[in-house]
Each structure stands twice: as C-alpha cells, then as structure tokens.
TrEMBL record, chain B:
This is Thiamine ABC transporter substrate-binding protein. The keyword Signal applies. GO terms for biological process: thiamine transport. Coiled coil: none annotated. Residues 27-58 are annotated as: Disordered. It comes from Halobellus limi. PANTHER family: ABC TRANSPORTER SUBSTRATE-BINDING PROTEIN (PTHR30006:SF2), THIAMINE-BINDING PERIPLASMIC PROTEIN-RELATED (PTHR30006). The keyword Signal applies. Residues 36-57 have a biased composition (Low complexity).
Length: 562, 383
C-alpha cells in the first residue's frame, strides 16, 4: 500500500480535477469552439481580431496586473525580511495573520478603502493634521493597484518567508568563513534560494490580478474595466460564445505565463542540505551603529506603510461595524446577528451555521488539498519530459475565471449528466470541499515544490537505502525539512476555502450550506452595519484558525531538522 | 450506479445515505419532474426528503425570488408573506433564492433539467427579454383573469404576452446630499444637460448597467432623453465630466454615505429609509432629472411546469390584494403596483413619485437593449 501511496495520491488528484474542474470548465469552453453543434473558430477569432478587446481590454488588464504585481512584490518583500530575519514578541502570530487580507470579501475591502483613502477618509485626516494637502485616491488606477497589493503582498511575503526560513545557515556560515562579506554571502547563498519564491509569488499575483473582477469596478470604475468585467457581462446576458472566447484567451495567457515560470523554476534547483535557519536578529539592536540605525529607520517607515495599507482598511471595517446611523458607538449590528441567529427562518442566512459551514469546508479543504499538493510537488520535482506542461495543467485552476468555473459547476455538477436512465448530480458539502481543494492545492504545491527541489537528493537516497519506502522517506525526512512551506501551503488552502464565493454559491444553491462570505453578501443593505459586523466575525474566526494552524504545523516541523 | 434497485429495496423511507453525492435538488422535493423525463427521475425525487406521509401534509408551493426579498437586514416582505399566506391557505410556502436569480432557471431550461419552483417573484423586462431570446418555449405560463389584475396601474404591465403580473414598482432617480455644498446648500442639477456643467464635475455616482438594475435604468433613461443616436455622445461628455460608474448599488451608495460624492443614482423612495433610520433628510434629497423618473416595475409569474397551478394562482391573487400590496410596498420600500393598495398616510410623505414616469416598452427594448448596452460598454471602457 505504502509503496503505491504517491501514485494513488496523484491518480486521486487527477480524478478530482477531472470531475470538479476540467469537465465543468469544458462545458463552458465548448461554447467558444462549437456554435449550434458545429465546430468553429469564429468566436475566438472575433476576439483576437478586435482592436478593442486586444488593446483596450487585454492590454489594459495585463498592464494593471503588471503594476499590481510590482506593487505587491515591493510591499511584500520587506515584510518577508522582517518576519524571517528578526526576532520579536508576537512574530509568529503576526506571521499567521499576514494571510488575513487574503480572506477579506471584496465588498469589505471596498468599504475599508473608501473609509481609509476616500476624500473624508482616515488618510486625509492624518495628512490634514500634519498640514499636508489631501489626496484623492479613489476611483483611479492607483486605487485598484493598492487594493490588489492589499490582497497579494501577503502572498508574496508568506511564500518568501517560508523560503527564507528554509535557507540552511551552515551554507551562509561556510561562505562567511571563506571570507565573503555579509552582502556577498547574501547575494551568492541566500538570494538564489529566495528568487524562485519571489518569482512564484509574483507569478501567482499576476495570474490573480489578471482575472480580478469586483475590486476593479468597486474602486476603479467602469472606465478601467478588465477582461473579467466583460466575461461577467456576457455571461449575465447569456452570450455564451463570446464569454467563452474571452475566457479561453484569458486562460491561455495565464497558463502560458505559468508554464514559462515553471520552466524557469525547473532550471533553478539549489542543493541545500537541510533547514537550520539562520539566527534571527533582535528588533532592538545591541549597539546603535549607523548601519543598525539605518535598518531600524527603514523598518519603521515600512511599518507606517503597512499601517496605512493593511491595518487602516481592516480597522475602519471594525469601526463601521460599531458605528450607528448618525455616528456614535453602538452594538446594534452585532445584536442584529444575534437576533437573526435566534429568529431567522430556514430560508434566511444565519450567522452560526455560516461559521460552522465555513470551518467545516475549510478543514475539509485542508485535509484534501495538502496531500494533493504535496503529491504533485513530489511529482514535479522529478525530471521527465513535459514536466512543465503537466505542472502548468495542474496549475490551471488558478488561471480560469472564477465566473466561468461557477457556470461550469452549475452545468456539470449541479445539473449533472444523464447516465443509465438516472441523472447523476454532485452537490452538497463533498462537492464544495472538492471544488475548494481544487482551487487550493496549487498553493500547497507551489509552496512546497521549490523547497523540495532545494533539498539534497542524498537525504532521500540514504533513507531509501536503509529500507524506507519513498513515502516513508517523504514523511519522515523531507517534509519536516520543508515544514515551513507545508504550513504556509496549508494556511493558504484554508484561506482559499474561507474566502471562496463563486463555486460555493453554485454548489450550495438553495440548500443550507452557505458560508461566511455568503452571509456577508446577504446582510448587505442600505446600511453597512450588519454586513461589516458579519465581516468582523469572519475575520475573528479566521484569525484564530490561522494561529492554530501555524502552532500545530510548527510542532510538526519541530520533529525535523538536525 | 445501482440507485434504482437501491431505492426499491429501501422504499421511500427518507434515507439520506448517499452523502450528498447523487440526487437531491437542493433539499427541495419537487414531487416529480415537470418534463416527465423518466420514471426514475420521479422515483429518485420522491426519496429526497419526504417521510412517507405526503398525503396528510399540506401541499408545498415553492416561490423563487432574489435574496433581498426574503433576507434583507432592514425589512423584507418574504417572512410576512409566508406567515400570512400559510395562515389563510392550506399550504406550505417555501422560498428558493438561487444566486444567479432568473438565469439559474433559464440555464436549467437550456440544459433540459426540470425546474423545481412554482412561482418566480422579482421579474423585470430585461429578464423577460433574455428568456424570450434564449428559450423557444417561454419559461412561464400566460396568467389571465387573476382577480385584482384589473387594479394594476396602467403602464406597469411590461409583458405583451400576458405572462407577468407586476406587484410593485420603483422609480430610479438622483439622490443628493444638500449638506455637501460650500455653504451647506448643494443643489443637484435639474436636467440631463445641466449635469454636464463643470460645477458638477465628479459629483455623480452610478452603477454598472450589467450588474445593477439602477445602473441599467439610468442608462436607459439617458437613451430616452437623448435618443438612441444621441445617448453615446451624451455619455462621452458625462465621462469627461467625471461620472463614476461603479460595480453595484451597495458600493456606490456606501461611497455616497461616506460623502465621496454628493449625488448617487438610486430610488426615489430613499427618504422612507432615511426617515425610518432617523437620518438627516437633508442628506437624502431626491431629484428627478427633466422632471422624470425611470419606472422599474417588478413582476411575478407561474412556471410552465408547475404541478400546483391552482395554488400558484391563489398566491398571485393574494399578492394583489389591497392589504398585501400595502405591506409589500412598505417592506420592500417601493410603490404598490395596484391603485387599490392600503397604505398609511406617511408613506406618501416620504416616498416620492416623479411628475412623469419614463420607461421603454418590451418591444422597443427587445430589439435594442443589448446593442445599446454593449455600445455603451465599448465606448466607456475604451482606454
């Protein structure tokens, strides 16, 4: 059994992908190449020959995604450096919470941004207090870019932190003892191990922001419409051929980029020994040399930016949930949640079931996505022809528009297929977990694969020669050494599940398996109180979950090392 | 799948042993397929959630609608309607609220999957056009001689084929904040032309016509005011004057409340809420551009495949009754569809109707609305 465990895991992964991803998506994509039952390339051709679509839409979408990627990397890297290289109280908790922006429903981000960066927002209040002129950030390209950085800088930071914590200190020490300066040692030893992580963070960010939808219209406006806005519009109007053609082109670009990255990742294999992280420095230096002071000023400045971009929007959402209609502190919105819980009818959305469902799906996703992701990571660190292509196909769930996946799940799973005189349908909790896992496992793979690739193959070989099976060697030797990556991947898997909306509403249609983001959406009304209160509940529940995941994962990692 | 034999051996004992993998149409029990696909279809349905005592239980009416109709955080008509209807009729009323609303059922019909709802509440002319464009057979049955239909206001009926009965209507207008002027006396422009004046630059928030009914109504209002040949030029100037077209009503209304801009496209019943919530009415003034408001009636109809046509008709009649019309209007914060609704005095005080209601007919929209919207999208999103 153990002998074939990896193969089985890979086969199971392929089967799940086929049922809850490839088949459903194919039911939509087919509209781009079949019209009235006849094969045609007309829809795709008309997209590719339209100057408006190519330049104004695809060109602009790529441009804003590029800006967003640069902003996310610039904002995420210093965070990774602080988290990986400095020791301070609450560091681990802070590291767990960096993923929080990732689960914020877009409507909450929009609310937080208006309150923070709007004309009467916190930022302008602060600027006014120190005598600076107000800035108007909203409804511009800048607002979209900052919001995308809000979502994705944490991703860059997390992936890079995991890689940084897996750098073997002895390699750095060796370089230093051979006379390399700290800068030189960093450049030659540490940087090569960080670059793949930064590159994957950047690639994922680009793919995500390329398919961004609600944020673009909520903080930018229709003049800044992206591809996804037009896909949504065409699907709303049931113009499936055009929607599918747009989605096919969008996916091709994303997958192409991912493939290109994976070729690069495959060429950059390190040969690390293990993971004995370098000792961290204290935030409060021993001696105040010029260099140390410069470093601390930099960290302080970065702290201010983090306050503005991350803490500001989240804090203003918390504040909104405590504010009454004419200002003044109130708990009425939370009372609304209690009341809805107690008196809500069966067809209404109640907070507690939403919390319970979210947690159930989140834990389920974690349990399914981590083995899936690790199996694929092991597979892709082997050398075989077409590895990058297989890998890129496995990454496809990130590259396909969420709106298209939603429609595909409706056609493919909710409606089901006629077979042997019965209709086979796949809905309910299992389907939701499967759909979430498909969206989540690529994160596990991408967090683990680069680190696995960096391990010295002799570690596995010696374990195998001592009689361990491949799986045994993986679980006992390799995974503990790359625990930072596994834990980061697991946290992402959980976060993806908590934040997922498109597939959840389709698969939980009309039943009682609504989740926290669905509840937030439902409680939106003329006043924002109830929705923001639910949003705060979502944040509280997920924060706690992340801290628990990290603590638990940290213990597992503690078994490894030397 | 050996589901058939499995079902036969267990009988209709309400076994839920398939872990949500097979069957189950969202927990509802449609009591047989409407298209009568196969015997098995009906078979597997009857094992859904029934407990084998179907005969003694009151019949079930499934009413599908949009989420806010049953679940808005302020007030929604849904719960009251269910309670009142069930107290008067021997029936159970169940709500279904698919996220993609009517598109969910159009999609079901397109894919040949049976529909498990009896009535849809919340139809508009846009949806009707989509139904008629995509489906050879209408989704809904013609509804005539429902008592109370004669009381529906002239001009609200939007279906030439008589499948849809309006139950309420809103008017889309500008809502503005008087306190945002330099001396606290901001005055919104009175005409579409005045909206282009430099003094109103960046002052108006509206919504994506594809994702929002207010946004769509405002766009159509400009088509009505400027003509199909002139509305794009008008929008070009509006865009130059920095109009903001945001994703949806909530987002834009929140920005308006945060005083990001002094005007927002919304409903003319805005003060009903403002008054209810004790807000400053000066921050919620209504303006009807060109003295017009764009009418947005909502309608209901009976699904073609319903197996409870009588009960569905009872429900429609119930919805048009004067007392029920008054309740819907107050709880949905909209105007009743009939002339005979029972409404308190104060409703008229805060719910403002336009001097003149504007709306396009079904026929005018059917041939043009997609084209108008798509041309607008292309122009507005050109970088």
């Amino acid at each position: 059994m153990e002998r074939h465990a990896l193969g089985l895991a890979a086969a199971a992964t392929a089967a799940v992908l086929l049922v809850v991803f490839y088949y459903p998506v194919a039911t939509v994509f087919v509209d781009a190449v079949f019209v009235d039952g006849r094969p045609t390339i007309e829809p795709i051709l008309s997209v590719l020959s339209s100057r408006f679509y190519l330049v104004d839409i695809f060109g602009f979408t790529a441009y804003q995604a590029l800006l967003s990627t640069v902003a996310s990397v610039l904002l995420g890297l210093p965070g990774a450096w602080v988290l990986a290289r400095f020791e301070f109280r609450g560091r681990e908790t802070l590291r767990s919470l960096t993923i929080l922006p990732f689960v914020m429903p877009s409507i909450m981000v929009a609310i937080g941004f208006v309150a923070t960066f709007g004309q009467n927002g916190t930022l302008n209040a602060v600027l006014g207090a120190v005598g600076l002129p107000p800035v108007d950030l909203l409804f511009t390209l800048e607002a979209i870019v900052v919001a995308h950085a809000f979502y994705n800088a944490p991703l860059v930071a997390r992936v890079t932190t995991a890689a940084w914590e897996s750098v073997d200190a002895s390699a750095v020490e060796t370089a230093r003892s051979l006379g390399a300066s700290p800068t030189r040692a960093f450049r030659d030893v540490v940087l090569p191990q960080l670059l793949p992580a930064v590159a994957i963070g950047a690639t994922l960010t680009f793919v995500f922001t390329f398919a961004s939808f609600p944020i673009v219209l909520a903080l930018g406006g229709f003049q800044l419409a992206t591809v996804e806005v037009f896909i949504y519009s065409r699907i709303q109007n049931l113009a499936y051929a055009e929607a599918a053609a747009l989605a096919v082109v969008e996916t091709a670009i994303s997958i192409g980029l991912t493939y290109w990255y994976l070729r690069y990742e495959g060429r950059n294999r390190g040969s690390g020994q293990g993971a004995r992280p370098q000792p961290r420095r204290t935030l409060w230096p021993e001696a105040w040399t010029a260099r140390e002071i410069g470093t601390r000023v930099g960290i302080a400045a970065y702290g201010v930016v983090v306050l503005a971009v991350f803490v500001g929007p989240i804090a203003s959402m918390v504040l909104a949930s405590l504010t009454g209609p004419e200002g003044g502190v109130t708990l009425e919105h939370y009372l609304f949640l209690l009341e809805r819980q107690q008196t809500g009818a069966s067809y209404q959305v109640r907070p507690l079931p939403a919390i319970a469902n979210s947690l159930r799906f989140g834990i389920g996703t974690l349990l399914v996505a981590v083995p899936m992701g690790v199996a694929l990571a092991v597979l892709t660190t082997r050398e075989f022809r077409g590895r990058a292509a297989v890998d890129a196909l496995a990454m496809a769930p990130l590259a396909v528009s969420g709106i298209v996946v939603g429609l595909g799940l409706l056609r493919g799973l909710v409606f089901g297929v006629e077979a042997f005189g019965t209709r086979i349908q796949v809905t309910g909790a299992l389907a939701v977990v499967a759909a979430h896992a498909v969206g989540a496992y690529p994160f596990v793979t991408r967090n683990v694969a680069p680190l696995l690739g960096n391990l010295d193959p002799r570690l596995v070989e010696s374990a195998r020669s001592l009689g361990a099976t491949r799986v045994r060697a993986l679980v006992d030797v390799e995974l503990p050494l790359v625990a930072a990556g596994v834990v980061a991947g697991a946290a992402f898997a959980f976060a993806i599940s908590i934040g997922e909306f498109d597939s959840t509403v389709v698969l939980a249609e009309g039943s009682t398996s609504y989740t926290m983001p669905v509840a937030v959406e439902r409680y939106l009304g003329r006043r924002l109180g109830p929705a923001t209160a639910m949003g705060c509940v979502l944040l509280a529940v997920t924060s706690l979950s992340f801290v628990i995941i990290e603590r638990f994962g940290g213990r597992y990692g503690g078994r490894g090392g030397f | 799948m050996k589901r058939r034999t499995f079902v036969r051996t267990v009988g209709a004992g309400g076994v839920v042993g398939l872990a949500g993998c097979v069957g189950g149409n969202g927990g509802g029990d449609s009591g047989g397929g409407s298209n009568g696909d196969t015997a098995t279809e009906a078979d597997s349905d009857s094992t859904g959630t029934t407990t084998g005592t179907a005969a003694s239980e009151p019949p079930e009416l499934v009413v599908s609608t949009y989420g806010a109709f049953v679940d808005a955080p302020s007030t929604s008509p849904g719960p009251w309607l269910k309670e009142t209807f069930e107290s008067e009729f021997d029936a159970t009323l169940d709500f279904a609220t698919p996220d993609s609303e009517i598109n969910y059922y159009i999609e079901r019909a397109l894919q040949g999957v049976d529909i498990d709802a009896d009535v849809y509440v919340g139809l508009n002319v846009d949806m009707l056009i989509r139904i008629d464009e995509r489906l050879d057979e209408g989704l809904f049955t013609p509804v005539d001689d429902v008592s109370g239909q004669g009381d529906v206001k002239e001009g609200l009926n939007f279906d030439p084929d008589g499948r849809i009965v309006p139950y309420d209507t809103s008017y889309v207008s500008i809502v503005y904040n008087e306190t945002m002027g330099d001396d606290g006396d901001y005055v919104a422009p009175e005409t579409f032309d005045a909206l282009l004046e430099p003094e109103f630059e960046g002052d108006l928030l509206t919504q994506n016509p594809t994702g929002s009914s207010t946004g769509k109504s405002f766009l159509l209002h400009t088509v009505d005011a400027k003509g199909p040949d002139g509305y794009l030029d008008y929008w070009e100037e509006l865009q130059a004057n920095d109009v903001r077209v945001l994703s949806d009503w909530s987002t834009s209304y929140n920005a308006f409340l945060e005083e990001e801009a002094p005007m927002v496209v919304s409903y003319s019943t805005d003060q009903v809420y403002a008054n209810r919530e004790g807000q400053d009415l000066a921050k919620h003034r209504i303006r009807f551009l060109n003295d017009e408001g764009y009418a947005y009636p909502e309608g209901m109809s009976v699904f073609e495949g319903t197996d409870r046509p009588e009960l569905a008709r009872d429900f429609l009649e119930f919805m048009l009754r004067p007392d029920v019309q008054g309740e819907i209007a107050q709880r949905n914060v909209a105007f009743p569809a009939t002339t005979t609704a029972d409404l308190p005095e104060e409703f008229a005080e805060y719910a403002q109707a336009p001097p003149e209601a504007v709306t396009f007919t079904y026929d005018e929209l059917r041939d043009n609305v997609s084209e108008w919207t798509q041309a607008w999208e292309r122009q507005f999103a050109s970088k």
